[in-house]
Each structure stands twice: as structure tokens, then as C-alpha cells.
TraB/GumN family protein (Pseudoxanthomonas sacheonensis), 352 residues
Amino acid sequence: MHTRWARRVGWLALAIPALAHAQVDLTTLDRDMAGPRTQVLVLGSVHLSELPKDFDPKSLDPLLDRLAEFKPEIITIEAIGGEQCDLAARHPSMYGQDYCASTDAAKAATGRDVPAAIAEIDKTLADWPAQPTPAQRRHLAALFLAAGERASAYVQWLQLPSAERRAGDGLDDALVTMLRQTAARNNENYQIAARLAARLGLQRVYPVDDHTGDNTRLPDTKAFGQSVQQTWEAGRSEKLDSMEQQEKSLSPARDLLPLYRFLNRPDNLWLRADINAGATMRAASPQHYPQIWVSGWEIRNLRMVANIQQTFRERPGVRVLSIVGVSHKPWFDSWLGQMQGVEIVDVEQVLK
């Protein structure tokens, strides 16, 4: 009995680790799905605010032409939505409000706070006509500003005839000035996403950024930031330096399509992913600061990806364009690609 029991225990010792590491492959569950797959194109973008001061939005026209050929029906952007900004305002000690612009001017003009504006937007779009009047567009733009979604307000503004870009229907002079100033802001949410949405006749863009999971609670946040920064500096390679120099040389061009082709190359995406997570996870720290940062980074990306899925939840088979800072793209492609009924579109093919 003793020998037989020892053999049984030995077999269990070998079997249990194998069972503990067994995983169910979920990626093939949609192999025989009914209906069309949702097409998701992730465009990794430079932050346009970091480009030279003489940046001309017209340099993005060739890029917009390629993206328009994809014919996205939903466009998402790396921005905090009004709902999360409202949450942060109600819980400032937990989330802070560093990423949210004030909606006070729009509230004064419309009489609506963020929740009321969001509710009115949903109601308005549910009954949106095929040919909206300028008054309807001005009203919707005002609601988007009150909801804290300036990029979507700009989508409406761009679709107004020039003579109709004026105050009225909820837009007062202060809000009109805000929208006119938006045209000069070097921000991919306006110069790529909003311009493309207006060109395609879409009514809005969808903010999907999320900072509720990366607001680390540590006793010494300064030391934490310094540790992570030192980790990135120590983890740099000659290839990464060369890549960044090439980006700088492409940035002043009158045509930024080559820059975006370069940004979205798999080898360059890998270099960014490695410095963000690979080198950071390899770094030693008594407080494990680098590993804590990666955890927050991945929580942020997971929640952003979930927010993207929410935009097409009720519209299976739709074409989705997600415009995001290029460092996020590897995570977006990987996790969105694991979702049921989702197919990742090759951005290199689109930008050819």
C-alpha cells in the first residue's frame, strides 16, 4: 500500500502543475460565427502637439485620404470622456482632474451639467435626421461641449456651412470662440479624427481613454516617477535612438503619410513595447516601482480596449478606426484581436 500510494502521490505531483498551467484557447470560439466580423483598424499616432511649431494640418491630407478609403463607421480617440471627467470631479481625492477641461462655459450657455448633456445627446442622436439643419448641428455641438466632448462638437462645427458657423441654438460667443480656436490646435483628436469624421458624415467621435486604473497610490510619488524615468533611460538602445531620429527627420515634411507608415511598422512598435514593458519589467527596484508602473499601464490599456468594444457592442460587423498614441497600438492590436468576432485590419496595407 505504501509503494502504491507513493506512486500515486508522485503522479499527482507531476500532473497538478500541468493542470495548473493548462489554458483554454478562446481565440477560435468565433471560427464558425454567423454574420460579419467587426473590422478594427488601430492607427498609432504621434501626438501632434509635439511636432514642429510650423506644423501645417494640410500635411495630414494624404493620411486622411488613406483612412477615408477604409470607410470607418466608428472613430475612437485617446481622450477622457465626459462621464469619466464627471466621475473624477465627484471623487477628486481618488482620481484627480488633470485630464479634464472645464465645462463651465458650456454649462452656462446650455443650462446643462455633464450628466444632463450626455442624456440629451443620446436622445438627440436617437432621432437624428438624415439631413440635419444648421440649427440642429449648432445645438448638438453645444451639447457636446457641455458633455466635455470637444472633438465631437468640432465634428458638428466642421459640417456646418461657413456662413452658419456662428452663435445661436445653444452656442454663445464664448463657445463659438472655443470652436474656432480648436481649428488651430495641433491635436490628432481634432486634426485627424474630427476632420475625418466630418468628411465621412459621421456625427461624433468616441473618447475611450481611461485613467481610473493607473492613478497609483504610493507614499512617495516623486520617487516613483524618478525610478520609472531612470528605468526608461537605462533601457534605451541604439535602435530606439535611431528610430526616434528617423521620426524627427520625417516630422517636418509637407506630407506626413511616410511618418505614419514609419510609426506603424511592426519593428518600431516592438521597440516601443520593449522600453515600456520589457525593459521596465527587467529593472530591479526595492519598491518594485517599475513593475507597478507596468501594471498601471496595462490596466489603462485594458480599460481603453473595453471602451472601444463598447462603441461597437450593438453594431457587429461595423468598421472601427481607433486613433491612439503609437505606444498603445501593440496592446490594442493584441487584446482587440482576442475579442470574439473581431478582426484586426493591417494598418500597413491601409497606409500603402
Notes: The two ends are 71 Å apart (CA to CA). Residues 62 and 332 are 24 Å apart (CA to CA).
